Amino acid sequence: MQKVALKDQVYKSILKEILDGKFSMDSIINEKVLSEQFEVSKTPVREALVRLCSEGILENLPRYGYRLIPVTQNEIQEIIEYRKVMEIEALRLSFDYIGPADIQKLKQLDESAQEAVISRDVHLAWERNENFHWELGDLCPNRYFRSSIKSALTVGNRYANQYFSSIWREDKPLDRSHTKIIEALEEKDLAKAQEILTFDIELMKAILL
User: Fold this and answer.
1) Is 118 found in the same domain as 89?
2) 155 domain residue, yes or no
3) Residue 195: what pLDDT?
4) pLDDT value, residue 78
5) Which domain holds residue 54?
6) Is position 161 within any domain?
7) Is residue 73 very low, low, confident or very high in pLDDT (cuts 50, 70, 90)?
8) Within a domain: residue 190?
9) Which pLDDT score is estimated for 66?
10) pLDDT per residue over 147-178, tens digit each?
11) Is residue 1 a part of any domain in this protein?
């Protein structure tokens, strides 16, 4: 690994292993093992693990290691309801400011996300799904909405593996909600865009609960 932003590279590597299902709920994640695996010192590994703890993905077991925090049905329900409130309102606030360049960027992210889902790479699929929603939320002029949306999406890292595994196991057709949201934005139809965005967010609840 390169020394530039080493802690971020280690963070992404550990997160990828989590999303790929490399750790069970009973697994103890050990700094020493990870530092040897990634051939880095313990410092960037520790920093990455602390970050994952701050994001609610891991919990620290003093003198023992780290483990995944179980995801409850109630928590999934709450985060989905929270995302609906924040993302739908953010879209309303940003609607009049969305221009051709923004639409083009969303199209590129949508295409990239679809390719990732087809590849069946959990980490890549969730990362690109996040990127689309981050970009859509980032168009909102209210910085507090932008920050809240990003935090809510980060929580989704905890159940991304379960979400995509269920889709692929049941061989569900590729969801085109992002494409339809973009089409509604091009048509200047806010109500339609909000309706599709709501469906897109609630789809996770339908699959996980």
Assistant:
1) yes
2) yes
3) 98
4) 93
5) 6-68
6) yes
7) confident
8) yes
9) 96
10) 999 988 888 877 787 777 777 777 777 789 99
11) no
* Cβ neighbourhood burial of 209 (10 Å; 0-12, 13-18, 19+): exposed
How many domains are contained in the chain?
2
Same domain as 148, residue 173? yes
Asked if the model's pLDDT at residue 94 lies above 90, the reply is yes
How far from each other are the two terminal CA atoms of the chain, in whole angstroms? 39
Locate 43 and state its tokens: 């410092």
Please tell me the pTM assigned to this model.
Answer: 0.80
pLDDT in tens, 29-56: 999 999 999 999 999 999 999 999 998 8
- Domain boundary (40, 68, 96) is at 68
* 169 and 132 in a common domain: yes
109 and 51 within one domain: no
